[in-house]
Structures are given as C-alpha cells and as structure tokens.
C-alpha cells in the first residue's frame, strides 16, 4: 500500500487551526531509544502462568463478563512475574506483556534469541512484523464535508436519529496513530464539552500526558485518529454536517502507532491497547491499523496465503477478544485492492470474529478500487460489510463503529456476535454476500426492524437461468446498476456497471460463472445459472 496521508491531512490541519486557534509545532523526531534499535522485536511466548493470580480486570469489566455469561479464564491472568524476572536475569527487558497471548515482547540479538529459546518456560519465539500500516486516507487536497455526508445518507442515518439512537451510554475504544487537535476540532467539540473522552493512553511514548496527545504533533499522521474519531462521532454545527452516528458515545483512546514511516513494528502496542480497553470494560473497539507486508527480513514477510485468521498473533488476539472477552472489533479491511501483488485484506481483518469493513463507490455501492478483497481460501466471508469512503477503509470502518454503537444503545444485552449478525443482516445485499463488499451496506431501517423483532421487507430473491445469456426484468429508477459475476456463491470473477434498457438487464454468462448478483440497492436478485 502507498502511504498517502500527507497532502489531505495538511489541509485538515489548516482547517482545524483556522477554526480553533491551535498553533502547530514542527513535528518532532521519534523516540529514538526504541525506534533505532538494531535488534529486531519478537514475541516470547510462555508455556504456563503463575497459579492463583487475580484477573487484571476492573469492576466494570467483570460486570460486563457476567452480563454476557463469559467465564473468566487464564487469559485474564497476568503473565508470570517469575518468568519476566528470569528474562531480566538473562539481560532481556520486556517491552509489553500480553496476558491474552501469555507472552512478552522484547528486542533480541541473535545470541539472546538462542539463549531465550533454550529456557524451559519458553514455548516459542515469533517475530513481530514491522509492517503494521495505517489503512490510509487518500491524498486529494479536499475537505471531508462534501464526501462524508453521502455515507450518512447511504446508511440511513436519519432513521437512527429519529429513533433516538446516538450511542449514548456505549463505551467505544479507538486504537490509532494519533489524535492531534481532536479536542479543538469543530466536529468533536460536543464530545469534549461533555467530557466524552474518559481515558487516553500513548503506547508509543508512555511519558506523554493527555494534553500532549492532543497538542503535540510528531508526524502528520497524528491527525489520523482525529479523523477516525470524527467519522464515529463527529457533528459540526457550523457546517451543519453530521460525520458519524455515535455522537453521544463515551470514548477511550489509544495511540499505538508512530506514523513517521509506512512500515513499523508496533503489533505489541496494539495488543496492549486491546487488553487495556478490555480491563476497563470497553465492548466496542475501532481500529484502522492492519498488517500486510514489508518485513525488514524478507524471510519473515507475511504472504497472502497467511491471511487465514490464525497465523498472525494479532489475529489470534483479536479472536480471543471476540470469543472470550465479548468485544466487537471493527477493523478496516485494507487499501490493497489495487495492489496486484497483494489485493486481499490485511490482518487482523482476516480474523473470523472481527467485523471487517470494506469501501464502496458512492453511486453504485460496489467495491471502490482500493478496497481490499476477501481471500478465497477463507471458509467465512470477508469483508463482512462495506460503506462509502472516498479516502480509504480507515473512514468506512468508523462509520460502521457508530452504527454498532447505536445498536448497542438500543439493546445493551446483545452480545458482540449478535450485534455483528444484526449489522450483516441489515445490509442491502443480504443474504447474497461476496468477497468484494461482504453483505453490502448496512441500512439503519433494517437494523431497527431487527432490534424490534419485526419482519424485514422481502428485498432479496433468486431466479434460475440457463444458456449463455439471460434477459432479466428489473424494477429500478437507476439507469445503471451494479452486477457481480461470481464463480460460486461468494467469490467474484468481475464486478460490472450495467445499463438498464427498457426495464431489463441483458446478462451474459462467462465460462466459469455459476451465479450473478444484481444489486438494485432496494432489492437484490441472485441469478443461478443452470
């Protein structure tokens, strides 16, 4: 993926500065004591934990587990203090401790690697991929107002507003690269005025204070989390524009990524932030970070075939969060769709338990070119759903995070998997999903009906066709519609924009085509070729 934040974010910076009076310092250098180390970073996995240790959870987290009937287990216990001490005796200083993975991260030379691997309590050592990347916003020199408004219409935001669903009483975690200027951005002033940001933590520079996180600019990508937060909860009364759905949610922010370069190894920061938010009782987390490729040692590169939901430790951690902690993780699918050497989603979007979000075009609602596609090898559908974003899946994911917050407000007793199912079933292509856009665009009206146990209108049907061509009658006001040609029930051969002539579509079947999805937005027709 090409990192393309700079020009767009510079403009956003100027807009925020003009409206807030914030002065922007020159970007400072990275924390060189860690970033410039010659030693590669690894996870050191332990084979046991100390018996009898107490769970590292707050009372709010314990109440959440009890309410969801999720038992406490050894993944809630901290790593062994004895093992950490033994590593220190060997001259190994742990950077991050993960109770979920039963591991610590550390930088190891070749000699230290060999010594640590020989320790009896070490179950294994795994390299930490320095290719964690922001699934970035694109680089056009334009503001976001004209481009965020269409997605609010696309997902039927007014329906949630009329139902009084604004994410109130829902705790939302945001894991990102930085939140510079968030407390002074017009679109987020209402959040900070009501003290809606409860806790912040900087895992890149742990000496930073809350004020530093909002007012110190290290790199231009420190705006990224601010844009993401606005896409979850933004509402600008001056521009009279709503950017996000969860305007009344409560937020916990974590900076885990230092954006001074595209490739960086901060997977352990991400896991630490996840565990911190879990310990506070956060149920919904947005993360617009993901792994693809770029290891400094090519032998340790991830391959597309490894985007399988369980190879990377970051996906394993995400799956633990989904299965054992009851957390709904909303992840941007990635912006590698145009990269012919990769094309597919990044990890942890490949984990089955996360809600992976792709991006659509504004008019046709099919896949926009950069949006990553789901691997054909997966036994489950990825991405799960999609929505419009001109600037990358970084901004489509937070829109759906706000959508999830509204559902959680409506029924706080729903589990993370039940919320995920409602979002999928509310989407406009359901049940005819595909590996380009998942089940399509979630619709607020359908989600509300599902929450009320009301029957959904019949918007999906199938027809059978034979031969190499088929004339399909359609009822639509659009002159051009989206058509997905598929090799099976979910995997796309080609997406096409087709013109409607006299109320009919002239479908032509390719040699390997088994099914065809016709997307009329208000109706989806599945053509099954015989």
Automatic annotation (TrEMBL):
Residues 1-25 form the signal peptide. Pfam families: Peptidase_S8 (PF00082). PROSITE patterns: SUBTILASE (PS51892), SUBTILASE_SER (PS00138). The keyword Hydrolase applies. Residues 170-440 form the Peptidase S8/S53 domain. InterPro entries: Peptidase_S8/S53_dom, Peptidase_S8/S53_dom_sf, Peptidase_S8_Ser-AS, Peptidase_S8_subtilisin-like, Peptidase_S8_subtilisin-rel. The active site is at 176 (charge relay system), 224 (charge relay system), 394 (charge relay system). Belongs to the peptidase S8 family. This is S8 family serine peptidase.
């Amino acid at each position: 993926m090409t990192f393309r934040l700079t020009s767009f974010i510079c403009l956003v910076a100027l807009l925020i500065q003009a409206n807030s009076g914030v002065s922007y310092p020159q970007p400072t250098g990275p924390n060189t004591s860690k970033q410039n180390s010659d030693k590669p970073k690894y996870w050191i996995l332990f084979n046991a934990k100390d018996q009898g240790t107490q769970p590292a959870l707050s009372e709010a987290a314990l109440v959440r587990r009890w309410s969801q009937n999720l038992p406490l287990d050894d993944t809630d216990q901290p790593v062994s203090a004895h093992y950490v001490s033994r590593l220190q005796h060997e001259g190994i200083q742990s950077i991050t401790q993960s109770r979920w993975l039963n591991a610590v991260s550390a930088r190891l030379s070749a000699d230290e690697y060999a010594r640590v691997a020989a320790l009896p309590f070490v179950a294994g050592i795994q390299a930490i991929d320095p290719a964690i990347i922001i699934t970035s916003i694109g680089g056009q020199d334009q503001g976001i107002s004209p481009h965020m408004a269409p997605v609010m219409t696309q997902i039927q935001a007014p329906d949630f507003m009329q139902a009084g669903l604004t994410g109130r009483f829902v705790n939302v975690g945001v894991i990102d690269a930085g939140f510079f200027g968030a407390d002074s951005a017009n679109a987020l002033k209402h959040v900070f005025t009501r003290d809606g940001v409860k806790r912040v933590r900087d895992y890149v520079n742990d000496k930073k204070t809350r004020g530093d996180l909002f007012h110190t600019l290290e790199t231009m990508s420190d705006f990224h989390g601010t844009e993401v937060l606005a896409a979850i909860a933004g509402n600008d009364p001056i521009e009279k524009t709503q950017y996000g759905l969860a305007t009344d949610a409560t937020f916990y922010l974590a900076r885990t990524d230092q954006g001074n370069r595209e490739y960086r190894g901060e997977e352990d920061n991400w896991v630490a932030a996840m565990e911190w938010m879990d310990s506070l009782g956060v149920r919904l987390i947005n993360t617009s970070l993901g792994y693809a490729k770029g290891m400094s040692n090519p032998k340790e590169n991830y391959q597309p075939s490894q985007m399988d939901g369980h190879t990377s430790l970051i996906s394993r951690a995400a799956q633990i969060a989904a299965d054992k902690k009851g957390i709904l993780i909303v992840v941007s699918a990635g912006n590698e769709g145009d990269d012919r050497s990769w094309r597919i989603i990044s990890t942890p979007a490949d984990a089955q338990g996360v809600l992976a979000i792709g991006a659509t075009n504004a008019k046709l609602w099919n896949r926009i070119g950069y949006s990553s596609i789901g691997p054909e090898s997966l036994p489950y559908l990825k991405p799960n759903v999609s929505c419009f974003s001109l600037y990358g899946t970084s901004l489509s994911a937070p829109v759906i995070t706000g959508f999830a917050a509204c559902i959680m407000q409506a029924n706080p007793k729903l589990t993370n998997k039940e919320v995920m199912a409602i979002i999928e079933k509310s989407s406009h292509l359901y049940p005819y999903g595909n590996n380009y856009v998942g089940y399509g665009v979630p619709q607020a009206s359908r989600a509300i009906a599902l929450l009320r146990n009301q029957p959904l209108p019949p918007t999906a049907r199938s027809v059978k066709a034979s031969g190499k061509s088929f004339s399909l009658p359609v009822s639509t006001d659009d002159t051009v519609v989206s058509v997905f040609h598929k090799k099976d029930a979910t995997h796309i051969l080609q997406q096409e924009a087709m013109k409607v002539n006299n109320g009919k579509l002239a479908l032509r079947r390719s040699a390997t085509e088994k099914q065809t999805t016709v997307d009329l937005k208000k109706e989806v027709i599945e053509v099954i070729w015989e």
